[in-house]
Design goal:
Blueprint: H1 9-20, H2 32-42, H3 48-60, E1 64-66, E2 78-80, H4 82-89, H5 98-108, H6 113-127, H7 131-159, H8 173-185, H9 188-191, H10 193-218, H11 228-254
Antiparallel strand pairs: 1-2
Helix pairs in contact: 1-2, 6-7, 7-8, 7-10, 7-11, 10-11
Length: 257
Amino acid sequence: MTQPPQPSIREVLLQEIDAQLPKRSFDADLSQSSVLSAAARKLTGVAHQAILTQWSELFRTGLIAWGSDLANPNPPWFHLTGRGRQALGNLTRDPANPDGYLRHLDSIARIDDIARSYLVEGLECYVAGLFKASAVMVGGAAESVVLTLRDATVARLNALGKPVSKQLEDWRIKTVTDALRDFFDQRKSQLGGDLKEPFEAYWAAFALQIRAVRNDAGHPTSIDPVTADTVHASLLIFPELARLADRLIAWVNQNFN
């Protein structure tokens, strides 16, 4: 019988921190030994050094920090930072938990291997604290999704013998994005409310958030053009863009004539 894949070390550590987080004033503070012991019991067969490496990464990338308060500022006590609390706020799908994020994405949309390769690297950069690199990779993944939608639209137009605008076949992603927006804008009344509203919300989000952040990273005009929060927002938007593209492709293939 095939065994289910083992969760990642990082995911298990975050789950244990979340489970042991003090909920009441008399609950015990977060303790390194308690979290590591619980995680090791779940990560059967995983080398202890590998667990410790990922534990150190949580400190290095700013999700947790030593001490519970000024009276107890040293190990083994630790606390969640603001970024750590953000990550645990929706642990099952937050980018700080790449495995959970990808599971959520796969549950609502399909992306091709090119988009996935960029997205996975973008997540790896994000958890490593390389936010400019993450912005570029997530932007690349989003552009791949847009080009897949463009290819499906052009193929359908060709199959129906309808004209294809030069803008749709342009090599520049902004030109293609604008052409797709115009194409679906002209047919919004045919999309139906359940598709029209996501199109109006998330297509603009791609142009105004994901692409803008990617451009800020790729064409910097300041020392720190990209922050953790802006990349976090791009990653949260991406699954909805992928789901929208999936649904638009299905509409083009099944309902457009």
